[in-house]
Specification:
The chain is of the alpha/beta class and 494 residues long. Helix content is 39%, strand content 14%. The protein has 17 helices and 13 strands. The two termini are 13 Å apart. 56% of the residues are buried.
């Protein structure tokens, strides 16, 4: 089936003229139309333009780049010229926001003739771990429609796992690429902070957001990263660091590598199946010639508390622009009259109505927590202290990477949970980030890939972590594991 090809496989067929970009794009479109009614992964379809882009790639006839003619989907926070972008929030959905420009990521993909199929579902403004806060409704897990696909890049993960595209792009602030990839059984790459540009991507927490790929294989992740990574003059946080050809190191294997197992990532209360499969993966690495050792990251237990002070604080700042005047949907006098029985008398009243109707509960919750943490009486007690602990967490990783090349950990404490399981318990939802949030606080890269299945036939993921700018090491280790196992080849029955 054409839509089930990997990027590397499709590239070879396109290059040898055994397949056309139009046929490949049409196969993905038909797949979306066939299965997405039950998944709700794709929230905006860009099919006519996608076919036009595919025709241009075929007419050019030179598939000299691995992404030329390859169909992909983008999380609904990437600005793409002429394509609706809503962050799955009524704040922008009601405004019919259509960007007049491209994000750096989509621009770089466009320059290589990749084919954009549309936008995928996400938690509202990426705030969530289950895609349940989206104004378009929840994305369902391809393996079990009663389960979440994860979040916030749940739509992107479900789309890749269901073969609706050959790859997808997402954002990761505290696990938002890696956790849904683990829940859906695909590969998710969170890069070093500053490795990829955030320009043109709607922000949640600017010091933590990073752009990455969700793919079917580690090799495909390396291909996408090599295309979208690099210094961007439009984003001052991007590093002036060379971008290697990541595909060249994939076959090196792990012989001689030292891989650490942090004791803080195997905690009481996690699903024993998750722990068992991650420890089994460690044995696979040992059998391939790597040395697996126990290590410690002593400040990791404080990561969730730290993360949920810093993130709401940055959310409070970033969401301030959506006031119904400069950005966001507007309220008419007639609408406001119906609510109040009179026209609003003050600007504050107007803001109140716009934000009450435009934002969902989770966004409001984070704005209020962040505003409180940043207020004059509490800034030192909360935000400043959280930043100090963040430094300690970062230092832990720097010290441990002096002893090992990579770290191996679970991605999430459980497989995909049931839709609605944490809806009434925000703290329990926040704890889903327990193994992923420390990586964003430290700014290091992490790769999520399948390592087993639960007794309920749900994917279980592990993550391989590397030092700053250490994407080569984690891709190398991930590819070696993938070649030694078959977990990544399993597909949901749709």
């Amino acid at each position: 089936m054409t839509f089930s090809l990997t990027i590397a496989q499709a590239h070879e067929r396109l290059k040898s003229k055994k397949l056309s970009a139009v046929d490949l794009t049409r196969a993905c479109i038909e797949r979306i139309e066939s299965v997405d009614k039950s998944l709700n992964a794709v929230v905006h379809r860009n099919f006519d333009r996608a076919l036009d882009e595919a025709k241009k790639a075929d007419k050019k006839g030179v598939f000299d780049h691995p992404l030329a003619g390859i169909p992909y989907l983008a999380k609904d926070v990437f600005c793409e010229e002429g394509v609706p972008t809503t962050a799955c929030s009524n704040m922008l959905r009601n405004k019919d926001f259509i960007p007049p420009f491209d994000s750096t990521t989509t621009k770089r993909l466009k320059e290589k003739s990749a084919v954009s199929l549309g936008k995928t579902n996400t938690d509202e403004f990426t705030m969530g771990a289950s895609t349940e806060t989206s104004c378009f409704g929840v994305t369902k897990n391809p393996w079990d429609h009663s389960r979440v696909a994860g979040g916030s890049s749940g739509g992107s993960a479900a789309a890749v796992a269901a073969d609706e595209c050959l790859f997808a792009i997402g954002t990761d602030t505290g696990g938002s690429i890696r956790q849904p990839a683990a829940f859906c059984g695909c590969v998710g790459l969170k890069v070093t902070y500053g490795r990829t540009s955030r320009y043109g991507v709607l922000s949640m927490a600017s010091s933590l957001d990073s752009i990455g790929a969700l793919t079917k294989t580690v090799e495909d992740a390396a291909i996408v990263l090599g295309t979208i990574a690099g210094k961007d003059p439009l984003d001052a946080t991007t590093g002036d660091v060379s971008v290697p050809d990541y595909t060249q190191i994939l076959q090196k294997g792990v012989k001689g590598m030292k891989i650490g197992l942090p004791k803080e990532y195997f905690v009481e209360g996690m699903d024993p199946q998750v722990e068992a499969f991650v420890r089994e993966a460690a044995k696979v690495f040992t059998a391939m010639g790597a040395k697996v050792v126990d290590v410690s990251l002593p400040h990791s237990p404080y990561a969730i508390a730290t993360y949920y002070v810093i993130v709401p604080s940055e959310v409070s700042s970033n969401m301030a622009r959506y006031d119904g005047i400069r950005y966001g949907h507007t309220e008419t006098n007639s609408t406001l009259s119906e609510v109040e029985g009179r026209h609003p008398l003050t600007l504050i009243e107007y803001y109140e109505h716009v934000r009450s109707s435009g934002f969902g509960d989770e966004v409001k919750r984070r704005i209020m927590i962040g505003t409180y943490a940043l207020s004059a009486g509490y800034y030192d007690a909360y935000y400043r202290q959280a930043q100090k602990v963040r430094t300690l967490i970062k230092n832990d990783f720097e010290e441990v990477f002096k002893k090992v090349d990579c770290l191996l950990t679970p991605v999430a404490p459980t497989p995909a949970f049931t839709i609605g399981a944490h809806t009434d318990d925000p703290v329990q939802m926040y704890l889903e980030d327990i193994f992923t949030a420390p990586i964003n606080l430290a700014g290091i890269p992490g790769l999520s890939l399948p390592c087993g299945f639960s007794k309920d036939n749900l994917p279980i993921g592990m993550q391989i972590l590397g030092p700053q700018w250490g994407e080569e090491a984690i891709l190398q280790a991930g590819n070696a594991y993938e070649k030694a196992t078959e977990w990544h080849t399993k597909k949901p029955a749709l």
